[in-house]
Specification:
By secondary structure, the chain is α/β, with parallel strands linked by helices. Helix content is about 30%, strand content about 20%.
């Protein structure tokens, strides 16, 4: 499975690290054995990334976490390290949805969500697609910002992750 993002998230200033698993559970658990992370299963992972987001935020809400914001980082971004996580985390909060931006302002990860107003605490929208949703019919960061009355803030991170910025430019 290779390296995990847990150390980057913790190194970027996150006090709690929750890893949501779905596909390839056994291999992922093995790779995470030595890491100080909470592992959460997303039983409906095949429904899209929103399922993992809901599982992770629901875990924070039910586990008694004191976090008011959660930083979302994807496992398949090896060039996005602790400095990018720290820059986004610095802006994150209950009233601010922060997101990394690369190459001419193209949005990327990590991004944040308010724990108490994020998708886990609202009913799941119908998977209809269209404006304000992702390709899987999940709410986009802009629509979450609108409905939660949070401010959506993008912060430039190309200087901290040149390969990630180059991949965005190349359309990967």
């Amino acid at each position: 499975m290779g390296r995990t993002s847990g150390p980057d998230v913790a190194g970027g200033g996150c006090d709690e690290v929750v890893v949501v698993l779905g596909a390839e559970v056994d291999a992922a658990r093995e790779a995470l054995d030595a890491e100080a992370v909470d592992i959460v299963m997303a039983a409906d992972w095949a429904d899209g990334m929103g399922a993992s987001l809901r599982a992770g935020l629901s875990h924070l809400l039910s586990a008694g976490s004191t976090a008011d914001a959660a930083l979302v980082h994807l496992v398949d971004l090896p060039d996005v390290g602790a400095p990018v996580v720290a820059r986004v985390a610095e802006l994150a909060g209950p009233a601010v949805l922060a997101r990394a931006a690369y190459a001419s302002g193209v949005p990327g990860h990590p991004c944040s969500s308010a724990v108490t107003t994020g998708p886990a605490s609202r009913p799941r929208p119908p998977a209809t697609g269209g404006r304000g949703t992702t390709s899987m019919g999940e709410p986009s960061s802009r629509s979450i910002a609108r409905t939660s009355q949070a401010v959506l803030t993008w912060t430039g991170c190309s200087d901290l992750s040149p390969r990630a910025a180059a991949a965005v430019v190349a359309g990967n």
